[in-house]
Amino acid sequence: MESQAPARRHPLARGMTLLETMVAAALATIILGAAAALLLAGGRVVHNTEHVADSHDHARLAGEQLLSAVRQAGAGMSEGLWVVSAGTALRINPIFGGDGAGTGQLAATTTGNVPGTDGSDDLWLVVPDRNYLGRDCAPGAAMTVVQPGTGALQVNCVGTPSGAAPATPMLVASNMKSAALLTQTSVTSSPPTATVNYLESGVPGFSNAPHKGGFQRGDLVYPARVLHFFIGAHPTTGRKALMRAEGRPGTDAAGRPFMDMGDPVVLQDFVEDFQVAFGVDATNSGDAASYVFQHGLKPEYTPGLRSVRISVVATGRTPRRDTQNQAVLSEDLPIAVENHAPAPVPPDGYFRSLFSRRAELPNLASASL
């Protein structure tokens, strides 16, 4: 019987030693740690990039809304706007504002016309209804004076202001040079004419052309709003925001002829500074390069007001983070704009974006009519 060769033995499979296991675990920990650090760093970059984009958007949106209102203001008021303040007729600018460093009539005010303390400016505008040059009697369109005088106005028909009626309806009566702001009390319609009654009726010297003895046939009468822009605290977050209040004739705390007549609305969140510079063509040269810009403009009529420079500073919603995941970056500080240099404060992690644009005021240039 043939003998069989002994079966060839295979080495047994060997498991990992404790040392090998520890080395593999250490390598895996290093790799996972590096991946986590890379992921967190990428997250911080994305967060910071979004924060910067946020602040750019907030500044741009606030600035564009302000410029839109500025470009509409003053239509038909190139030679000033007559208002009644404390029973006296005054000729004022339809665009004026306080300086954060000013006092008296040049003091900037906030909610309820309280003088501001943070260095921001404020801005007052008299803005006609957008539809005032539409067809007669359309919502918001102008009516035409058919009988001259200083008392109740006789107009060709009555138009209804577009949108929700304000708490204090106001009208502008204009000869397309000078104008008068009327606080409407009632309108009595008797087609094809109507009678417009207003609070200022009978005040000596009050009309769009007092040297002519009152309102004249052919004057336009159209709805208008008084708008007050300023920096205030957001009612929910407490963060600074660009606010807008509706105004009405009345002497405010700074001695100006308008005051807020209700709670303001938040126009744009996360706006911490608002600065305005007013460009005056004092020599009537018509050369935009020669305008003299000033900080703050009193309401008293100023010939030659031709331009406004709007600047706003905004932040993002949340602070940026540095490489140690701290919500503070040394360069994230308030910035100086126009004549406002904020007081030194510790870095807060909020990136600041500045929007600054200059707008010409064609409504205040008589040659453009």
Query: What is the strand content?
Result: 25-35%
**What is the radius of gyration?**
32 Å
| Biggest beta-sheet profile | 6 strands, antiparallel, barrel
H/E topology pattern: HEEEEEEEEEEEEEEEEE
Amino- and carboxy-terminal Cα gap: 129 Å
Helix content: 10-25%
Query: Care to count the β-strands?
Result: 17
Number of domains: 1
- The order of strands across the largest sheet is 5-6-9-8-7-10
Number of helices: 1
What is the averaged pLDDT score?
86
Q: Which spans of ≥5 residues are poorly predicted at pLDDT below 50?
A: none
**Judging from the principal axes of the Cα atoms, what is the shape?**
elongated
Structural class of the secondary elements?
alpha+beta
Provide a descriptive summary of the structure in words.
With 369 residues, the chain is of the alpha+beta class. It has one domain. It is 15% helix and 31% strand. The protein contains one helix and 17 strands. The strands form two sheets. The chain has a six-stranded antiparallel barrel. The chain has a four-stranded antiparallel beta sheet with strand order 15-14-16-17, with helices on one face. A hairpin with a 2-residue loop joins β1 and β2. The longest helix has 55 residues. It is elongated.
